[in-house]
Amino acid sequence: xxxxxxxxxxxxxxxxxxxxxxxxxxxxxxxxxxxxxxxxxxxxxxxxxxxxxxxxxxxxxxxxxxxxxxxx
Length: 72
Description:
Radius of gyration: 15 Å
Order of helices and strands: HEEEH
Strand content: 25-35%
Largest sheet: 3 strands, antiparallel
Strand order of the largest sheet: 1-2-3
Shape: flat
Distance between the termini: 18 Å
Helix content: 25-40%
Number of domains: 1
């Protein structure tokens, strides 16, 4: 899963939880993070990074989404 899709999935999952008061993006060097505030006032800051092994995913090409039925 590419980083942009993962971030969107993460945002959707947090937004669906009743204990989350807000989700805000913040900028840090080389990436965007999320500040997740819970209804009890606690805030956590998250950052996600993407890595691939040498010869791994070519991010210059469109992402090929694989579903369970494709794997066998």
